[in-house]
């Protein structure tokens, strides 16, 4: 096949805006798409072949018809986009050449035309799994790093609690906290995940929130001296229980509130008065603001991966046709570890 | 009368713990109290004559039977305590002598025996009204200073919004913000207070929250470009509306949540996701942590008072017998400005 020819390009399409829990039927696998694998003369675009797609909770908000969010809504009828790993097939941009591996925002499709390739990060280290660039070496890794170190301001020996702790971000925050000699407790939604926290990621303690009648009691059992840093991924009832257990001058980096994303009306946080009595700082953050620190993070974490001092669990779905199911599985907690979709092997 | 003799000591007693709105009948004026106006030989205590009492919203939490708060509950059957201005009558402490004026925690009574006088601040400047040491030159002043400058991290020209804006703290935050060239909007609960904000304290805009159907709309009308700093005094629905209107990297110093103090079950804050999308820092603080900065604050604010660059409105109730009514009036917003009780003239 000549690269200038049009080829078939399977795509995952959002049918319409979603309210409530997203379902597989909210998406369509469109097989009629076509793409030219060559950039136009004079264009600074690149064409990439997509290898891995990242399924991330924030994408739920893009399925809503909202204007107030920090990322634009998806366009119904068009392929959705997200973080992923891809290989450059053709480039009009001086920074990229054919064969380069990149990570960044790509389409949920076999091939993507990237019109602003400056947003892509070039992958320079391939002695680790390429899929890691959707996770520990990509956006979630940078999220854990920025949220824990920059927003959380951790000190040696502090008490750290993490929700959605076995997820793409949580498993890293826990391991970073252990490297900082913190006492680390996590919560997740199944026995299997709790085992992972304790036996694979080295958390000091963990509990299955679905089996606790009283989250406040569970926290008091696992963290009788309270919480210095709560890495917030879920919101809702867990946040309310945590607020009752914060220590003086505690910090709550607010990374996400996945328990709230499918609700028409978010649950309220009722215990915010604890922010005052315990002088707690609660701070939302977005990874985009910290991307300039990415090289520093990558250079810190790569040796830790190579030396086995940090581990990363992925849940890899095979094939673009299974991507919608993988994505919506995030919201019922079906995934074990970072949810990735393998689109194509290099 | 010899100072060693016992004298009568009228006291305001909390009858029992309070749930819901406090009422005058929750208090009793006890006229049977007695006190010796001389400290015991060898004691480091001081005996003071109380001149002014400060009525502060945080005292509501001390009327509850709670162990988790940052200040101890009042003891039913005993006189309540709070900030106030007093004159030393006798002293066993080397730092204080008869005739000294002080401010700090005293009893709601005519005379108090202070067993830990180290907690008192000595009043060195008396060319301003003494009652100011319950307000602009006391705990509320220091609260406004710490919350706005230290927690709020204001920048020139930012958009500042203040709830309970004509109160003891709010009126100062607004004036500090104007001195910092911010655009300042406040909300309060009556036309009279709103007029005060605009005409006396120099706020750029103000609204009566009780007359607004939709707080979000009121904020968008007064602050169409959003809010950089929200000085939080009230909690509840106002906080939820504010969260929708925060600007990128906004700050919310959380000083109080007076709208919630009389509720058995606090209202929830439903819009916390905005902390993430707008990267907002919400931080609770207590003035106690900042008391070491008091001399710095006092030396900053005294010239501003003397030069008329800052003004302070007080609502002074006369007589200990009117103290309970003054205190509970805070929770219905009956006071105009800082609520003080005059116990005795010097």
From TrEMBL, chains A, B:
Which superkingdom? Answer: Eukaryota
Task: Quote the protein name from its UniProt record.
Answer: Uncharacterized protein
Q: Which organism is it from?
A: Vaccinium darrowii
Source lineage:
Eukaryota, Viridiplantae, Streptophyta, Embryophyta, Tracheophyta
């Amino acid at each position: 096949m000549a690269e200038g020819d049009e080829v078939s390009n399977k795509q995952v399409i959002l049918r319409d805006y979603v309210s409530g829990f997203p379902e597989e039927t909210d998406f369509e696998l469109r097989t009629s798409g076509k793409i030219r694998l060559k950039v136009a003369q004079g264009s600074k675009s690149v064409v990439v072949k997509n290898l891995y797609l990242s399924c991330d909770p924030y994408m739920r908000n893009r399925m809503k018809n909202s204007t107030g969010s920090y990322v634009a809504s998806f366009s119904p009828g068009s392929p959705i986009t997200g973080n992923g790993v891809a290989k450059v097939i053709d480039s009009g941009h001086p920074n990229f050449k054919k064969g380069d591996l990149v990570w960044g925002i790509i389409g949920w499709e076999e091939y993507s035309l990237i019109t602003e390739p400056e947003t892509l990060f070039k992958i320079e280290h391939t002695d680790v799994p390429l899929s890691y660039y959707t996770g520990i070496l990509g956006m979630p890794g940078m999220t854990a790093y920025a949220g824990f170190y920059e927003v959380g301001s951790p000190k040696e020996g502090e008490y750290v609690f993490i929700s959605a702790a076995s997820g793409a971000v949580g498993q890293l925050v826990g391991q970073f906290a252990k490297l900082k000699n913190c006492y680390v407790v996590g919560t997740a939604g199944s026995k299997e995940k709790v085992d992972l926290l304790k036996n694979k990621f080295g958390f000091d303690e963990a509990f299955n929130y679905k089996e606790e009648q009283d989250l406040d009691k569970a926290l008091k059992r696992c963290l009788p001296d309270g919480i210095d840093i709560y890495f917030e991924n879920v919101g809702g009832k867990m946040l309310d229980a945590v607020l009752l257990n914060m220590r003086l001058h505690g910090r709550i980096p607010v990374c996400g509130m996945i328990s709230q994303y499918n609700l028409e009306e978010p649950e309220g946080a009722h215990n915010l008065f604890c922010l005052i009595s315990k002088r707690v700082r609660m701070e939302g953050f977005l990874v985009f603001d910290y991307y300039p620190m990415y090289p520093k993070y990558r250079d810190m974490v790569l040796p830790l991966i190579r030396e086995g001092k940090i581990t990363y669990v992925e849940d890899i779905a095979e094939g673009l046709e299974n991507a919608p199911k993988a994505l919506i599985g995030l919201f019922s907690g079906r995934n074990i570890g970072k949810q990735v979709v393998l689109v194509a092997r290099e």
